[in-house]
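Consider the following assembly input.
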Amino acid sequence: QVQVVESGGGVVQSGKSLRLSCEASGFSITDHAMHWVRQGPGKGLEWVAFLSHDGSNKYFSNSVEGRFALSRDTSKNVVFLHVNSLRTEDTADYYCARGESRSLPYSTFYGADVWGQGTAVAVSS
Amino acid sequence: EIVLTQSPDTLSLSPGDTATLSCRASQGIRSRLAWYQQKPGQTPRLLIYHASERAAGIPARFSGGGSGTAFTLTITSLEPEDFAVYFCQQRTDWHYSFGQGTKLEIK
C-alpha cells in the first residue's frame, strides 16, 4: 500500500526545534520528489519544502528559508524536516506529500498524489 | 514569488448544479497548475494535474482548463460529497504555492 506517515510533532516554545519524520511505504523516496506542506488552524495550505528524488535539490518557501532543513535516510525510506528557530506563526499541521516520479518529464506538473495524515506542531510564546 | 488568487472565496450551490472555480496566477505559469479537494478533517486529494489532466480515480464530472494566468475547475452535476474546499497549486522553477482556497457549500 502506497502511503506516507508523519510523526514528530508536538508542543514547543518559541525558538526551539523539532525534527519531523515522513516514513514512506509502497514506493521509494529515491524514485519520487517529496514535499512538506503545512496548514495553520482554520487556514489554507502553505507549501513549505521540496526534496528532489536524488536528494541533491532542496527548496524552501520564503517564510521558512534559513530556519528549516531537509534530510533523508534512504535505508529507512524516511524524509526529515528539521524545523528550527520556531515561531508562533509556524503552528500548523505539517503534511508530507509525494511529488513527481523521476521517470516523468519535468515539463509536466503532476502535483502531489499521496498525502499523509499530518503531524501537529504548536509553538507557544 | 508567484501568487495564486482563487475566486470566489465561497460558492453556494445545490446538488445537481455546475460549479466553476477560478484560479489566477500573478505571472504566467504555462499549464503547471494542480487542483486539490479537501474535506473537513481530511487531507488534500489531488484532482487535476497539469491544468487539465484528471488524476487517477477522479470522476469525469471534474475538469480543469486554462493556461498562462487564468485557470478554472469545473464540477458538473454536483454530488453531496463534492461540497468541500478546493485549492489550486502552481510550480515554477522548483518553487510552489497554493491559492487561498474556495469553499463550495450547499445552498
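The interface with chain A takes residues 1, 31-34, 36, 38, 43-46, 48-50, 55-56, 85, 87, 89-91, 94-101 of chain B (CB under 8 Å). Ask yourself how this observation constrains the way the partners meet.
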